[in-house]
Amino acid sequence: MEINGIVLSPDPRLRQECAEVEEINSDLRALVERMKVQMFENSGCGLAAPQVGETIQLAIVDTEYTSEKDYDPYVLINPVIVEQSDNLVPYNEGCLSIPGINCEIRRPDRVVVEAYNLEGECIRYEAAGDLFCVCLQHEIDHLHGKTMFERLLPQQRMHAMRQYQDALSRGARPGETE
């Protein structure tokens, strides 16, 4: 199921390991532009390609925009977490593909990510203790077939899935959290 161009859980594309991007071409650039529009229109701060139905290792992230004027997401092609801290901290996360709920997820409080941009340059992103840090990890999880649900303990997962079903039955849409 999709709403506003966003693939919703439990769509199998969200649980799939994504293929590496082999070539930066006009099709990939067009996909990035489509993702930018969809992320902005759905009030997201990150979006991975499987969330728009494309199972490739591509994500965009912008955690600091306040309007369309300062909206300029980072493009991450084939991103890899090359360093992460051992210190796990809780963060209340939402997801465009799981609208209507938030889940407390424990993640490393510091990461270093390497990814290619649209110019084919390898860029290193360092983040610690903020939404950008969480968002990088969340979007990279999507590229490896993991949603917020897979980060929860079994009992927490069952509770979150019930909340999600309730939210969907109330008409929750991407960008809405509890």
TrEMBL record:
EC number(s) on file: 3.5.1.88
Q: Which cofactors go with this protein?
A: Fe(2+)
Q: Could you tell me what the cofactor note in this record states?
A: Binds 1 Fe(2+) ion.
Per its UniProt entry, what is the enzyme's top EC class, as one word? hydrolase
- State if Iron is listed as a keyword: yes
What keyword terms does UniProt attach to this protein? Hydrolase, Iron, Metal-binding, Protein biosynthesis
- Which GO terms label this protein's molecular function in UniProt? metal ion binding; peptide deformylase activity
Record: active site:
E139
The record's Gene Ontology biological-process terms are:
translation
Binding of Fe cation occurs at C95, H138, H142
- What catalytic reaction does the record list? N-terminal N-formyl-L-methionyl-[peptide] + H2O = N-terminal L-methionyl-[peptide] + formate
Which InterPro entries does the record cross-reference, listed alphabetically?
Peptide_deformylase, Peptide_deformylase_sf
Name of the protein in question: Peptide deformylase
What is the native source organism of this protein?
Collinsella intestinalis
